[in-house]
Design goal:
- The chain is built from 10 helices and 4 strands, in the order H-H-H-H-E-E-H-H-H-E-E-H-H-H.
- The chain has 364 residues and is mainly α.
- The chain has a domain of 231 residues: f41 fragment of flagellin, N-terminal domain, CATH 1.20.1330.
- It has a two-stranded antiparallel ribbon. A two-stranded antiparallel ribbon has the order 3-4.
- Helix 1 runs antiparallel to helix 10 and helix 8 crosses helix 9.
- This is Flagellin.
- Flagellin is the subunit protein which polymerizes to form the filaments of bacterial flagella.
Length: 364
């Protein structure tokens, strides 16, 4: 006669193994309920894992481009604000200086004081920075592009002193021109001072680049134009948005302001004054006009960046939905599964407890 051997130890161990698996499943189900994402995405997706990885990579790249566009927009906003302030101050000075075009004004001293205030303000605005990046320095982003009007410890004479020395040298040693010929000589000297040279090493000592401006030079040491600051808000989009403090419009504007700030026009001779004040006003007007166009162009570029940024945000939303459809867990299904696992675990625990109470003496 054959007998089936029943082992309570074997049954108990089997049930304990079942309980361990059920507990792990319950922990995993609770985790999915909390995160609404499959605990083991790769195991759940199987053959679709490759598509999920590709979507994740595209999502991460899109997020990086959103950060780039936000950074670009922030810098452009600060540049626009600085340029708008320069325009406002410059226009005020232009209006004040234009009143002296008809005849020499006895208030020339106050014009000089006003010009000096505008000069300090413009230099400060051209040294504007966003974080550790100087906005008008070109690719030399880590240092302010404009030297302080009264100088610094960098070595060359103060910018104001450089300008006054050039005026004095062209005026026969006088602090201001005294004849129309000397005024013409002063204008020629200042035009040379505020010019840029190709290559930079060919510039005279204490010229604009080096004496007044220390950012990226207009031309490279080996010749040719220096690279401009640009941003890349998308794979196929590059925007060269950089305005530099040594751009022609800025140099022309600064030359006009320095002409008014360096000389008391009320003390000039009648012969020298008309051409001097007219040249200063023309420089101011020309620089401001081109700066106004550059500000408008910057606004167009900001609009382009904003459009690209909106496209990135739309794409991110779509990608997030696609990823969620692959990796996401339905809350209702997760809750139902937790209830089922808890019921199974209770049943297994009860069976294990009953088996543990079985004794042979109960059947003798």
């Amino acid at each position: 006669m054959l007998y089936n051997a029943l082992s309570t130890l074997g049954m108990s161990r089997k049930l304990q193994g079942t309980m361990a698996r059920q507990q792990m499943d319950l922990v995993r189900a609770n985790e999915e309920m909390a995160t609404l994402v499959h605990a083991d995405v790769a195991a759940t997706l199987g053959a679709s894992t490759g598509r999920d990885v590709a979507l994740r990579n595209l999502f991460d790249r899109t997020e990086e481009y959103i950060k780039t566009t936000d950074l670009l927009d922030g810098r452009m906003d600060m540049m626009d604000s600085a340029m708008t302030s320069i325009l406002a101050s410059g226009n005020d000075l232009l209006a004040a200086a234009s009143t002296g075009l008809g005849q020499q004004s006895p208030t020339g001293t106050s014009l000089q004081i006003r010009a000096r205030g505008v000069l300090d303000q413009v230099v400060s605005l051209l040294n504007a920075s966003a974080g550790n990046v100087y906005l008008f320095a070109g690719t030399a982003l880590d240092q302010p592009p404009m030297r302080n009007v009264d100088g610094d410890d960098s070595g060359p004479p103060a910018p104001m002193q450089i300008v006054r020395d050039a005026i004095q040298a062209a005026s026969g040693g006088n602090p201001a021109p005294t004849t129309a010929a000397e005024t013409a000589a002063v204008v020629t000297a200042l035009d040379a001072l505020f010019a840029v040279y190709d290559p930079p090493g060919s510039a005279p000592p204490n010229s604009f680049e080096g004496g007044l401006y220390t950012g990226t030079t207009a031309y490279q040491a080996g010749g040719g134009a220096s690279p401009r600051v640009s941003g890349r808000p998308a794979d196929s989009a590059t925007i060269a948005y950089g305005v530099q403090a040594n751009d022609p419009m800025m140099r022309e504007l600064l030359e006009g302001i320095y002409m008014l700030a360096a000389v008391d026009t009320s003390a000039m001779s009648v012969d020298a004054y008309p051409d001097y004040i007219k040249t200063a006003v023309d420089k101011l007007s020309g620089g401001l006009g081109t700066l106004r166009e550059a500000t408008a162009q910057l606004g167009i570029q900001r609009a382009q960046v904003a459009t690209v940024a909106e496209q990135h945000r739309t794409q991110k939303s779509i990608l997030n939905l696609q990823i969620d459809n692959l990796e996401g867990v339905d809350p209702y299904e997760a809750s139902t599964r937790i209830s089922q696992l808890e019921a199974q675990l209770d049943a297994t625990a009860s069976a294990t407890a009953r088996i543990a109470k079985l004794r042979l003496s109960n059947y003798l």
